[in-house]
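Q: Two folds, back to back.
A: First:
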Amino acid sequence: MSNKNLHKVNILLEGYDIDALWLYGDLKEYVSPESKVAIIAFSFRDEKVRSADDWEKLFSREQGCYYGGIVNSLKAYGLNEEQISFINYFSDSRESAAKKIENADILYFPGGLPDRMMERIKEFGLYDAILHHSGIFLGYSAGAVIQLKEYHLSPDKDYSEFSYYEGFPFIEDFYLEVHYQGTEEQNNSIERILFERKKPVYALEAFSGAIIVDNGKIKTIGKVKEFTNKRKTND
């Protein structure tokens, strides 16, 4: 591996356009031309991916609808395709998946369904390898919330009701509302968390907010709202 970090870095994003001008200046400190990236492509919806062919339509180089967006945004930081590997739920073995994680400087969690991503990670026996990885953790949407010890999901087209879920115990000090648009459902969820968990909630505005947690230090980028029991602040 090219450059392992000695401290924990978690990058929480809205989408995979990490080459956006409002993000690039902050992320280039963490995503270097020497980085090796393992993309844990386990967050797909069951009804859309039932076979290896279905997975290929999302993530393969030849036909994946998400491949170009993910890979090209990483290329903006000087990486080439040989430095980027996708963990394939259908063709990778436990051993080959674990090797890709071991060799990576950055573990990348895509968007989709965070609870199914966690279930598949455990099914593959990768939980401990990810938990103890000493590199950078980067994810968008589902791949952002899964980095929290406990996360919530507000009601939407995928989840009919509010609920709490178990993520990785990397971040414990706050909760995260992604794709924030100030809807009644989102605001009700935030109020519930403030009442039940007594912790701040950061809301990333849709397509325009991000958070970097570097060794416990929180940095907000773009349009991020912080909700606490005392006040709401705009960054």
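A: Second:
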Amino acid sequence: MKIDREKLRAGAAEWGVALDSTALSRFADYAALLMEWNQKINLTAIREPDEIVAKHFIDSLAPLPFLKLQNNAKVIDVGTGAGFPGMAFLIARPDLRLTLLDSTKKKLLFLQEVLAALGLEAETLHMRAEEAGQTSAYREQFNCATARAVSHLRELSEYCLPLVKVGGFFAPLKAAELSTELKESKAAFSRLGGRLERVETYQISGVGGRSLPILKKISHTSPKYPRPSAQIAKKPLV
């Protein structure tokens, strides 16, 4: 399977992300490995080359200009799955110190093969997000935490904000309509040491409307957070 490299280059450029020939080759190899591994384990329901370019690659790259990540920033992609958006960030920005966190070992084995094939370095972390948030090696260690998930922003914040250092930020990739989630998450942001800075809204051709809430970490998270996942689900922060 081959992707249209020019379509990817142009699509990324629309968002101010310049992909050189090395990056484009890496994305092509990534797509090929994704399809190869997808026959063995369920990594993605998206299988058409143009859809992979739009719905995985460009969708993952579009937030980068909004994040303004400094050189060598420490970034964690929570629940990374097949590597979105974290691997796309790293291909565009190989300087990033990236951690790819997932609770499914097979997905991390896939990502380890991708990293080796692409000649890139990142940490693959086999752990649940709430465990990482209570582990000193990861708690409040990152300049940026991100996730591309359908989880409610309130619960997602409890998983991710404890990983962010004071002065850093949490920026999950979300669907377009976010006003209700934001309202319901306000108390959680405050209790976790975060503050909503702004919400970037944008349209990606072939994908649709997207929202990128950017939460700044303004104070340390209380040691009681994150709680076990069952508690997070049963008693959301209000």
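Q: And?
A: The chain has a mean pLDDT of 96.
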